[in-house]
Design a protein that fits this description.
The strands form 5 sheets. Strands 11-10-24-23-22-12-21-20-13-19-14 form an 11-stranded mixed sheet. 36% of the residues lie in helices and 24% in strands. It contains 21 helices and 24 strands. The structure holds adenosine-5'-triphosphate and magnesium ion.
Amino acid sequence: MTNSITTESYIEDNSIFRVGSVIEVIGQAVKVRIDTGKNTSSILYKGDIIQNISVGGYVKIKKDFEEIIGKIEGELIKENKDNSQKNYINNKDKVNRILNIKILGYLESGKFERGIKELPLIENTCFLITKEEFNNIHQFVDSEDKPIKIGQLEFDDGVDISLGINKLFASHIGIFGNTGSGKSYTLAKIYRQLFEEYKNNENFKNKAKFIIIDFNGEYIDDAIIDEKGKNSYNLTTKAMKKNDKREKLPISKSTIENATFWSIFLSATEKTQQPFLSRTIKKTNISEESVKALIKEFLSNESRNVEKGVIFNFLNNINEFLKKETKVNDLRSALRYHGQQNTYYIEKIYANSDLDSVFTKTLECLGGITIKSLSDIENIKLKIIFHYYSEIVKGYSNIENLSPLIKRLEKRILDLEKVLTIKDDDSSENKKNLTVVSLRNVNMDIRKMLPMLLVKELYDKKKKDNNKSHSLHIIVDEAHNILSSNSDRESKEWKDYRLETFEEIIKEGRKFNVFMTIASQRPSDISATIISQLHNYFLHRLINNNDLLAVEKTISYLDKVSADSIPNLATGTCILAGLMAKIPVVIKVNEIKKIKNQPQSHNINLIQGWE
Ligand SMILES: Nc1ncnc2c1ncn2[C@@H]1O[C@H](COP(=O)(O)OP(=O)(O)OP(=O)(O)O)[C@@H](O)[C@H]1O
Ligand SMILES: [Mg+2]
C-alpha cells in the first residue's frame, strides 16, 4: 500500500514538475532543453499556484540522490535538427527551448545550502521547485540565530524575508543606491527592527554600542528610536556667542593629546613641523613660571640673533590665555634693544642695568602674568604657541619653518572648540547605547576631520579593551564624504591617514567586534578595498555605469538577472546579497510605521507647499 502511494506520487510529481534535461555543462553555467508543452505561466498543484519556468525563477536538477538548485538566467530557441523526427505535429516541435541556468547551491536533507558540491551531468533531469523548496531557499535565518523581518520578495508577493540578527549585525554592511532610492530608509529600518527586538534587554544596552555619523541630520530627534533612548549631538560651527551653551561632542583627552592627530589636523610638513608637534604635545601644560622664564630668556638673548620684535609677538599671542591682557604696547615703548650687548634694557631708568632688574621692570610694565583657567583645547594651543617661541629663542627651530603652522593653528582650532569638549578618559560611560552625531551644520574641515577623530578614538579603545562580549557598530550614512578615494581638496598625508584608519577597521575590525555599516550613493568613489571587504549588501537602484561596475566587480556571487535589475529597482526595493542571504534576492523593504521614526529625508512635495 505504502509503496503504491510512493510510486503514484513519484509519477505525479515527476510529470508535473519535470521541465527538461541537461544538454550542456560549462562550469556553473548549465543549459537545459525544455520538454515540449511547458508553456503555461503557472501551474495549479494541490491548491498552490506554482510558477512555471520563468527567467529569474529557480529549478532543481537531480543527479542520482543529489538535488542541485539553479537560477534561470535566460532562455533561447534553437532549431531542432533531429532528422529522425520528420513528421512534426506542429511548428512548435521544430524548435527547442533552451534555458541558461546558473548553479547556486544544493539541497541537503531538504535544506538549501549555498555553493557547489557537485555539478550536473548531461541528461540529468531538471524540475520546477515546489512551494516548500522555494520557501526553504528563502529561509535565511539559521536555527540558532534570531530573525528580524525587514521586507518581502518583490516578485513573489507575500513571501516575507527575515534576516538573522547575528549574520546581519556581526558583519560589515554596505547600502548603495542613487539619491532617493531608499538607502537611509533601509538603514533606519534594519536598525529600528533590531532596537525594537532588544529595547528591553539590559545586556543589549550594556554590551552593544552604536554610533551613527549623520552628515545630513536625518537621524536625530525620533528617527530609528525615540529621542529619549539615544544621545544626539547636533553640532555646529556657527560663530560662538557669549555664554554659548551649544551641544558639543565629548572626546577623550588621550585622543586630543595625540601628536599624529595634530600633525594631520594642522597639515604639518613632514620634515620640521611634524617633529615639532611630536615634541610639543607630549609636554606638560604651560605654567605662569614657564611663561615668565621665557620672557626672561627673550630679554637676555645673549648669543643668538632673534629679531627684536619677536618678544612682542609672543606676548600678543599669549594674551588670550591670560586673566588680564598684558600691556604690550607700554612695554614696547619702554623696552629698547641694546645692540652692542645683545640685550634689552629699559630706556632712561635702567640704561645700564642688569638682566634681573630689566626682567622685574618688564613684568611690572606688563601688569603681571596670570593664566586664566583654560579648556583642554586651549591648553594645547598655548603649549604649541609657547614651545614655538621657546624653540625660536633657544635657536632650536627656525621661524620660517614653523610660522605657517602657527597661522593654521589660529584658524583651525577655533572650529574645533565649537564642536568638541574634552572628557576624562575614565569618565563613566553613557548608559544609552545609540549615539547620533549630526554634522549637518558644520563646515567642510570639521566634516572631514571629526568623523575620523571620533571613529579612531572608539576603535582604538575597543581594540585595547578587547572584551569579546562587547561590540561596537559604526554607522556612516553618506559615507563617500569620508571614504572617498579621489579627493583633490585635501593633502596626501591626510587622505592616507583617513583611508588607512577606515580600511583597518574594515579589514581587522571583526576580530575586535567592531562592525561598520556604510551607505553611499557613489560606491565608485569609495576605495575598492573597503567595498570588497563588506559582508552584506543592500543594493538599491544604481544608474551610473561606474557605480554599477564597482558593485558588480566586488560581489562575485551576484547573478546576472539580479545585477541587470539594479538600474530599474523601485524606491524602497533593493537586492539583498552577501552572507546573510543564501542567494541574492530582490526585496521590498517594509515600511517604518510611525513617521517620526523614519529618517528625516522625505521627498519634498512642491505642489503641496505652494497651495
Ligand atoms: N521602503 C520604503 N517604504 C516607503 N517609503 C520609502 C522606502 N524607502 C524609501 N522611501 C521613501 O523614499 C524617499 C527617499 O528615501 P531615502 O531618503 O531613504 O533615500 P536615499 O537613498 O537615502 O537618498 P539620498 O542619497 O539622497 O540620501 C523618502 O521620502 C522615503 O520616505
Ligand atoms: Mg540618504
